[in-house]
Amino acid sequence: MNERQKPGEMQPCESWLEAISLLAAECLTVLEEAELREHLAVCHACRQRNEEIAKVCFNVRIVKPIVDQERVLAMGQCLQHLPLPAKKVTWRNRSVPMRVAMLATAALVLVSLLSHLASRRPEDNPDQRTTIVQVTPQLAPVESADLQLPTMFALRRAAAESDDTFDRLLAWYSEPSLMEPLNRHRFSLESLQ
Amino acid sequence: MTERKTTFEGELIRHVLAGEQQAFQQIAGQHAEQLFRCALTLCRDRQLAEDISQETLLEAWRSIGRFDGRCRFSTWLYGILRHRFLKARKRSTRRIVAESLSDDTRYSSHTNSQPAADPSRDSERAEDAERVRNAVAALPEEHRQVIELRFFADAKLDDIAAVMDIPLGTVRSRLHNGLEKLRQLNLAVNLFSATGESSVRQP
After folding, report:
1. In a 3-state reduction of DSSP, which class is residue A112?
2. pLDDT-based confidence at A5, cuts 50/70/90?
3. Which of A17, A62, A66 lies closest to B176 in CB terms?
4. A98–chain B nearest CA distance, Å
5. Smallest Cα–Cα separation from A187: which of A165, A167, A169?
6. ipTM of the complex as predicted
7. A32 at B interface, C-beta within 8 A
8. Which CATH number fits domain B9-91: 3.60.15.10, 1.10.10.10, 3.90.550.10, 1.10.1740.10?
9. CB B19 within 8 A of CB A85
10. In angstroms, rounded to a whole number, what is the distance separating the alpha carbons of residues A10 and A8?
């Protein structure tokens, strides 16, 4: 009894269906075919299915299209004058003069590289190289804003005094050179007068 | 060089690997028709199939040194064929017109050898052939290709796997599903009665 054949199953032939198709298509190995034939000998349903699939395969085989033999012969004609296949070139395959020439070239390249390294100028020294320092702008700490602006009291008083006094007050604050002392000393209306 | 009579593929391949052109021509001649049928299944265009098959053989000759014998020679050839087909499809600017195989009303060689009994039977067989071809053409693409490669190109399962670049198990299941679909399309009947039912294998 084959392990794929499970007695008591409702459809015991289900596991053999693919093998039956492959048998009809002549794609089973000798061992697989022997197993299947052993099963077919005892299973009527599988035998019937095998006959059906065999008929399908026969019908398909019979409509195999004819290939024009002239075309096949024409394909063969291209093989009459075949170029030689490219052989893999290894070090051992090369001739002695070629090996010597390749070694000499390699030595020349090596010497030129070494001489280039040896003739480096001092400024090529990595320690003396000019380094580019990226300077990022930094914002200066802003002093308290109330020192840079006239107080409301001073503005009111200047406005009450006269227009000219008010203008002078504004001009005082608008001049940058005056901002620094203003930051250090509070503005007083008396100093303007 | 003396004419080599051997048909043993392994022996031929040894000569091919040694660079003998005649050995390669001999082995290529053995596979040329299968390659052509296979290419025809893939591209459905006779001219393109011929070009691809020719290119495959030339490529095989050029790179024969890379054949390491781990697979059969035909499987290796089919691998090249697939590569050539994909390349041709990519570079081809012309539209690959699906050639209708149903227009070809000729039978295969073994049925042609049977003399036609009378015209009415001949037309009946032509109708049967048309019916089978239509059924095969109606299959899903992946099933149709496997069926055609197996029955029209006589390709083995591992060759089909190489051509379609799919696992062997998938080839087996597609072949089974394709045949099962054809059975459901009522092809499990005695068609081509004149050619004889005796050729159907009995268990």
Report:
1. helix
2. very low
3. A17
4. 24
5. A169
6. 0.72
7. no
8. 1.10.1740.10
9. yes
10. 7
Given a contact cutoff of 8 angstroms between Cβ atoms, the answer to whether B181 and B149 are in contact is: no
Three-class SS of residue A134? coil
| Residue type present at position B59 | E
Q: Helix B46-62 to helix B21-43 angle, to the nearest 10 degrees?
A: 140
Q: Tokens 């009809």 belong to which residue?
A: A24
**Residue A39, CA atoms < 13 Å, CB-side half-sphere:** 25
**What are the helix and strand counts (H, E) for chain B?**
9, 0
Query: Any chain B CB within 8 A of the CB of A52?
Result: yes
Cβ of B172 and A27 within 8 Å? yes
Predicted confidence (pLDDT) per residue in B35-92, tens digit:
888 888 888 888 888 888 888 988 888 888 888 778 888 888 899 998 888 888 887 6
Q: Is the model's pLDDT at B115 over the cut of 90?
A: no
**CB < 8 Å from A in window 132-151 of B:** 132-133, 136, 147, 150-151
As a whole number of angstroms, the distance between CA B193 and CA A58 comes to: 11
Cα B116 to the chain's mean position, in Å?
Answer: 27
Report the alpha-carbon distance of residue B97 to residue B104 in Å, rounded: 16
Q: How far apart are CA A6 and CA B166, in angstroms?
A: 31
Specify which of A84-93, A118-127, B65-74, B137-146 reaches the highest per-range mean pLDDT. Answer: B137-146
Indicate the helix (H) or strand (E) that contains A129. none
Domain total in chain A: 2
Taking the CA atoms of chain A, what radius of gyration do you get in angstroms?
51
- Yes or no: say if B21 and B60 are a contact pair by the CB < 8 Å rule: no
User: Rounded distance, CA B200 to CA B22, Å?
Assistant: 39
Q: Match domain B118-188 to its CATH number in 1.20.1250.20, 3.40.190.150, 3.10.129.10, 1.10.10.10.
A: 1.10.10.10
B153: nearest CA partner in chain A:
A64
What the block records as the tokens of B192 is 């081509």
Which range of residues forms the domain containing residue A186? 147-192
Are residues B183 and A53 in contact, defined by beta-carbon separation less than 8 angstroms?
A: yes
CA angle B199–B136–B124, rounded 5-degree value? 60
**pTM given for the model:** 0.59
